[in-house]
Amino acid sequence: MVKVLAVLYRGGQAAQEEPRLLGTLENKLGIADWLKKEGHELIVTDDKEGASSEFQKHLPDTEILITTPFHPGYLTADLIEKAKKLKLCVTAGVGSDHIDLNAANTKKITVAEVSGSNVVSVAEHVVMSILLLVRNFVPAHEQILADQWDVAQVARNAFDLEDKVVGTVGCGRIGYRVLQRLQGFDPKELLWFDYTDLPPNAEKAIKARRVKDLEEMLGQCDVVTINCPLHEKTRGLFNDELISKMKPGSWLVNTARGAICDRAAVKRALESGHLRGYAGDVWDVQPAPKDHPWRHAFNPLGGGNGMVPHYSGTTLDAQKRYANGAKDIIRRYLAGEEQEPANLIVVDGDYASKAYGQREKKASGHKGPGP
Ligand code: NAD
Fold first, then answer.
1. Mind telling me which residues the site (Important for catalytic activity) is annotated on (predicted)?
2. Residue 370 counted as domain residue
3. Residue 161 and residue 130: Cα distance in Å, rounded?
4. Is the ipTM beyond the 0.95 threshold?
5. Residue 145: CB partners within 8 Å, gap ≥ 6?
6. Same domain as 330, residue 300
7. What is the arithmetic mean of pLDDT over 317-339?
8. Domain harbouring 271, CATH code
9. Cα of 256 from ligand 1 centre, angstroms
10. How many domains does the chain have?
């Protein structure tokens, strides 16, 4: 019998009424009956903070841990030390930065995610976020809710996306799909920055220009979208200094990870007008505290905030894909089968993915960026 522990967000009434909310505490990724039939134990909880949480209580004798980026069970090096039986961490979704990957390597714990499962979901959200910032949508909608009508007040900060320069930091599965989807808006130019090459055909197909220096790219962009993982080199990357290299009055969209952007620096840049807008769904701790500065950060005209809870990658379509993918990873583990190489982040004490930072040892298995 294998003990499986899953940390999932509470769905409440919504999860009872909508069974396709598979990634919730209530609907248990749709794997509860299957694991029970196979004779395994499944514990599901949303209680994840502090030493007396269900998460920490069950961790020491857990063999398979399932977490999601939406309600992350933060698996620190200290907790990994206590998780003596832990063999496999499954991220139901994409992005395993809530796990201390270096510590997982030390203990030879495998970390796998359901690569590709929600990349279209996020790319669509990025395009939506770019549009809602550039077109000043949120303040316009708020007028309607407040029974107001003042065209000039919203039009004074509304623009077209056409003829703008848009750049992505990270051109992997999501970044590439964002560029693909932006073609139809006739931008002036699409730019990308990544240390990993695109396959030549993929690079040709998106008609985007690679810029090898991040600051050089940022200085040219009207819109910047962040699509790289959170790792040692990207934590706090968008601080006061880097944001100052962005074009004055530009827009920043971050659906990658909250901690890639310095929370105080973003608020300062918005309030000064250096950033005209900031949008995304990821926060540096989740759930975001009530007093998180990004909840109430605005540009000098009172707009420019396109923040939402972390849901871009957990649409019902995405949940189906990552629930199925998580089940397949667990099934392979239990059957002693090889994992899909693209799903492996760390394995056998080393990084299998090239996406979590440039490392001296060449990562194998996981494909590079692009489609
Ligand atoms: P991917 O592995 O396909 O691509 C990531 C790319 O980022 C790689 O090409 C890598 O080389 C590049 N990269 C890494 N460090 C970089 C750096 N310092 N500068 C520039 N590029 C860098 O991953 P993906 O599927 O495109 O997902 C990217 C990230 O998006 C995930 O790691 C996750 O954090 C986030 N994500 C968020 C949601 C959501 O719901 N908001 C859902 C899925 C993924």
1. 257, 310
2. no
3. 8
4. yes
5. none
6. no
7. 98
8. 3.40.50.720
9. 6
10. 2
Interatomic CA distance for residues 229 and 257, integer angstroms: 7
Q: What is the distance between the alpha carbons of residues 38 and 5, in angstroms, rounded to a whole number?
A: 15
Cα of 158 from ligand 1 centre, angstroms: 29
Do 195 and 75 fall into the same domain? no
Same-domain status, 32 and 130: no
For 68-79, letters b (16+ CB in 10 Å) and e give bbbbbbbbeeeb
Among residues 58, 257, 321, 366, the one annotated as catalytic is: 257
Q: Is residue 171 part of a domain?
A: yes
Question: Quick check: 273 and 304 in contact, CB under 8 A?
Answer: no
Kindly state whether residues 31 and 132 are assigned to the same domain: no
Q: What's this model's pTM, rounded to 2 decimal places?
A: 0.96
Question: Which residue range forms the structural domain that includes residue 212?
Answer: 118-307
The answer to whether 325 and 313 have CB atoms below 8 angstroms apart is no
Q: Which of 307, 325, 342 is the last residue of a domain?
A: 307
pLDDT in tens, 225-237: 999 999 999 999 9
Residue 267 belongs to some domain of the structure? yes
Judged against a pLDDT cut of 80, whether residue 48 lies above it is answered with yes
Cβ neighbors of 274 (< 8 A, separation 6 or more) are: 243, 244, 246, 248, 249
For the annotated binding site for NAD(+), the residues are 173-174, 194, 229-233, 255, 281, 310-313
- Indicate the pairing of strand 209-210 with strand 189-193: parallel
Note whether 220 and 191 are within 8 A (CB): yes
